[in-house]
Amino acid sequence: MARQVPGTLPTAIVSAALGIVLAAGCVWAAGPWSGGQRVSERRGRSPVAEKPVAQASQDSLAPSSPAPSTRSAGPTHVPAGAALLPVLAGDKPGGALTAAELADALSPLTLAPGLGKHVGIAVADPASDALLFDQHAADGFAPASTNKVVTAVAALAALGPDDQFATRVLQGPNSGSGTAGTASIVLVGGGDPTLSTQGPSSDPGYQPASLDDLAARTAAALQAKGVNSVTLGYDASVFGGPGLNPTWSAGYTDGNVAPVVGLMVDEGRAKAADDLSPRVTDPAAVAALDFAGRLAAHGVQVVGKPSAAAGGSGTAAASELARVTSPRLADLVEHMLTVSDNDLAEALLRHVALADGKPATFQGGVAAVRDQLAKLGLNLAGLNVLDGSGLSRDDRIAPEFLVKVLSTAAADNHPDLRAALTGLPVAGFTGTLAEDGRYTTPPSLAGAGLVRAKTGSLTGVVTLAGLVRDNSGQLLVFALMADQAPDAAAARAAVDRLATALAGCGCGGASAG
Question: CB-based contacts of 343: which residues, under 8 Å, 6+ apart?
Answer without folding.
Answer: 60, 193, 257, 258, 260, 264, 267, 268
